[in-house]
From TrEMBL:
Domain of life from the UniProt record: Bacteria
Alphabetized InterPro entries for the sequence: FAD-oxidoreductase/Apoptosis (IPR050446), FAD/NAD-bd_sf (IPR036188), FAD/NAD-binding_dom (IPR023753), FAD/NAD-linked_Rdtase_dimer_sf (IPR016156), Reductase_C (IPR028202)
Keywords: FAD, Flavoprotein, Oxidoreductase
Protein name: NAD(P)/FAD-dependent oxidoreductase
Domain spans labelled FAD/NAD(P)-binding: 12-305
Domain Reductase C-terminal, first and last residues per copy: 325-409
Record-linked Gene3D superfamilies: 3.30.390.30, FAD/NAD(P)-binding domain
Cross-referenced Pfam families: Pyr_redox_2, Reductase_C
């Protein structure tokens, strides 16, 4: 293969022009970096925001131009060299080069992976039928939208956040929606059984048919999907299927000395095991309170990208210490989640579930708030973030009392810590 060197001046190269990559590139300039910045993506579209794809964009409430992260003019003004439709197929960390699919060699002074995540694929008979969709890109969203006029019955495989948001959007569009989830309750592995029951009833109350504890064994049809066959013997009629069974970090670009454990393993400064190579956002495994974790959400991608950019300019100058946060809009519900935990010891409910306005706290064995879910209570967001961040034991009776402000709960926990 013929190879051509792109330039003789070594730039900072960012592979992946999603949320993390765009904010990292922009932050390099904002932090005073004057060298060349090359931002590369295999997608041909101007970098865009992904969360609206399952919501406002799917509903036709937002146009393509509304979801672009930045304009061409903005990239030019910041002197960010945006290379779209360019696929990097390998890197050589020792030579500090990246090689594109057409053999072009791109030299770099420092390299940042912001390669995001890739979809888990459902491998069953009939997966290649027409109208079996996945939603990851703007092209995916456009393809789904273009077919909806001819669709009345939709099956969504997977009751995660993408599946739940799509169910909400498609129901608003007047479609007959069935969610098929292999777990007993939706989102219970993240939010617990009580909240799993809540979200199950939420979708059912909106007229969505939610089937749990069952999975796809086959898609059936001639050229286009017409039925979903399940392990428990169900036959579900449909004219379209959208599969949303999760994602995995995109670590297809690698090096024998690069530490990869699900994602690119980085330290608190975003440094990988290779010198001058960094990773940020969905593709990274990063340290949080004694363990490496992986977060696939917008807020983390923004903040991690910005933070790692600082460390690319001034090494080890800005440890990443953000509290994980994500949100989801489903029907008329705004859901917000702060923190991260998989093995909480107890939960505390503040408010009334029946009122559909409450905060649900996840505590460890020391009564420290590790995470919290807010349902239709955005005014509590700042106080909840502080409670998660402080890592002091709280009085659970005060925490559950809606007449006691969360600010006072936070102050009381601080006072008790100081007294102790």
């Amino acid at each position: 293969m013929e190879r051509n060197f792109m330039t003789t001046t070594k730039p900072f190269v960012i592979i992946g022009a999603g949320i993390a990559g765009v904010h990292a590139a922009e932050s390099l300039r904002n932090e005073g970096y004057e060298g060349r910045i090359v931002l590369i993506d295999r997608d041909t579209q101007l970098p865009y925001d992904r969360p609206p794809l399952s919501k406002e964009y799917m509903l036709g409430e937002s146009s393509e131009s509304n979801i672009y992260l930045r304009s061409h003019e903005s990239f030019n003004t910041l002197r960010i060299e945006l290379k779209l439709g360019v696929e990097i197929v390998s890197i050589d960390a020792e030579k500090q080069i990246a090689i594109t699919s057409d053999g072009t060699i791109i030299e770099w002074e420092k390299l940042l992976f912001t390669t995001g995540s890739r979809l888990r694929q459902l491998q069953v008979k009939g997966s290649d039928l027409e109208e079996v969709h996945y939603l990851k890109t703007l092209s995916d969203a456009n393809n789904i939208r273009s077919k909806l006029d001819n669709v009345q019955q939709v099956v969504i495989v997977g009751a995660g956040f993408i599946g739940a948001e799509l169910a909400s959007s498609l129901k608003k569009l007047g479609k007959e929606v069935t969610i098929l989830e292999r777990m007993p309750l939706p989102l219970a592995h993240i939010l617990g059984e009580e909240m799993g029951e809540y979200f199950l009833h939420l979708h059912q109350s909106k007229g969505v048919n939610v089937i749990t504890g069952d999975s796809v064994v086959q898609f059936d049809g001639t050229s286009q999907v017409e039925k979903v066959l399940t392990e428990n013997g169900r036959v579900i009629s449909c004219q379209a299927v959208i599969v949303g069974i999760g994602v995995i970090p995109n670590t297809l670009l690698s090096d024998e000395k690069l530490d990869v454990d699900r994602g690119y393993v980085v330290n608190e400064f975003g440094e990988t095991s290779l010198p001058n190579v960094y990773a940020a956002g969905d593709c990274a495994m990063w340290p949080y309170r004694g363990a490496n974790i992986h977060i696939e959400h917008w807020d983390h991608a923004v903040n991690h990208g910005k933070c790692v950019a600082k460390n690319m300019i001034n090494e080890k100058s800005a440890p990443y210490s953000a509290i994980p946060y994500f949100w989801s809009d489903q029907y008329d519900h705004r859901l917000q989640y702060f923190g991260h935990t998989k093995d909480w010891k107890s939960t505390v409910l503040r408010g009334n579930i029946e009122d559909q306005q409450f905060t649900y706290f996840y505590l460890n064995e020391s009564d420290i708030v590790e995470a919290a879910l807010l349902v239709n209570q955005p005014k509590n967001a700042l106080a909840v973030r502080r409670l998660v961040k402080q890592q002091h034991p709280v009085h659970t009776d005060l925490l559950s009392n809606p007449d006691m402000s969360l600010k006072k709960v936070h102050l009381r926990a601080n006072e008790d810590k100081v007294s102790y």
